[in-house]
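hi! just following up on the protien thing from before. the input was this:
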Amino acid sequence: MSPCWLMPSSVQLLHQQSSSRSKSTTLASSSNNGSISNRSSNRSSNRSNNNISNNARSFSTATTHSQRGKRAVSLLPDYLSDARAVTRYCPTTAPDGALQLGVAENQMLEDLLVPALTEFQQSGTFAADCIYYQPTHGRPALREAFCGYLERLLQLPDNNRLDPEGLVMGTGCNAVLENLCITLAEPGEGVMIPTPYYAAFEFDLVARAGLSILPVNTFQHSGATIPTVATTTTSSSTSSSTTTSTSIPIEAYYPTKAGLTAALQAAREEGESPRILLLSHPNNPLGISYPPSVIQDCIDWCRHNQIHLISDEIYAGSVYSHADANFVSALALAKSKGEDSLGDYIHFVYSLSKDFALSGLRVGAVYSENEHIRLPLQKLNDLCQIPSQTQVLVEKMCTATATSSNDDDGGGGGGAWTDEFLATNQGRIQKRCNALQTVLDEFDIPHLKPTSGLFCWMDMSKYLPPLHDDDALLDDNNGNEALSSMQKRERILYLQLMNDFGLLFTPGLSMSNERPGFFRCVFTAASDHEFDLALTAFEPFVCLKNEATERNSATQRTMNEPPNALWRKYNELSQTPGCMTTFIPNDETQKGR
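and the predicted 3d structure came back as:
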């Protein structure tokens, strides 16, 4: 199956009838066929030169683009457009720009990477066989080296070695994940993903693979105590406020067998056909790893229900708080009960984009022991092979020996270069994480304790604008707030953070979170200077919000003032004892925030 085949009309109909819970639509179009048929009829019935000319112009206009191409763009989350469109902070040219804390990148490693990659690239001569076609799933030496790297990274035991023939190396994690899903499911079938999840999954698995995303909410079946939602409503004549904590315990985000079974049954009742359970482990956006018992339950549940489990472990090398994270790979757990192989239903994807900040090299990997999909995976990978010279570079990186001791952030000398590099990187991530948590604790902003990855999941729901009587439409008989109302209120807060305070986070509802007002902070996405500015910007935000709450509806209007007015308000608050103690605006920092 080619990933760019048009989907049949029956699949289109299936997707039109899909659950409203699904955040994605399939990309197939039958409108062009109808237009072509009409044009043929017109030409048959009227042979005048004028009509032929008109039809020719119509044909030219109608085929300048496809509808499926337009729909592909619509699948991208709004926050990516915001991140690209906003003016980014620069101390000289854009001191009022936003600080990018929403894109999953690690900006702390250039000093380590550039010298090492330069050395790897310059060692040896250009291999003659690199100028020819390569094995579609990767050069044998690269696959051998990468299997060895993964075995060390994931701490797989001696009796659980990876088979290089089960490894396919492709251009990035999204490419190999898409290919894997194409080999496991038909167009229109469903991919179950526990919420919240990486928003771009909706593009990666729908745009060409034509799958249906099925968000799996976890709160109801988690067994955790979920605080009630804080309610604040206002109208033209009255206002009321109930203050309750909305901090969600970490256990509430764990998928359970009961929750997965309920989601599976609900999806089937709505006409969906779930085929895949996709886990992000360590989790993006939560910044945590699932406990081994949770992953084992998911493995057992998938095998029992004949649902494919894909463990996306792209942040496996960015676990920095090992004792708290207790990270164990699904590849290790799937054979922990004496199994000879992973079987047909357990699969793994990884990339160098996050742990090594090498997103520009486009190196991803998929591993499976399902014999039925090996040849299809290799053939599909013909469309996204890694250039031969990049493969040679990565092979050298994975087999290099550390030649010098790194005294920075806990790295040690000796052993594999990758091990030393990751130890240093983890130390740096930990320092950034500690600095952010100190500020969040200081200003009483609830958050999950991060242990893995590049993220902190923050609960800023207490700063949401109040519910208005005309906006708070209910989506069920239980009095829950409608999704449209949640989206509206969260976007107001999101834009305030970005435009008025220069803090560009990822909004939680874009990742299908169950409640509004949660944000993902990528605390590695900025330089040291920019990160320090971001920490400083929390104080004026919190002080203004608290001031607005105390003054109720009259002061609430302050948050709608333009940035210059907000800046004057900062100066006023700076005279208030106990507030604005560290945020001192000046031309060299972030004037206008």
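The first helix runs from residue 9 to 16.
DSSP finds 19 helices and 15 strands in the chain.
cheers
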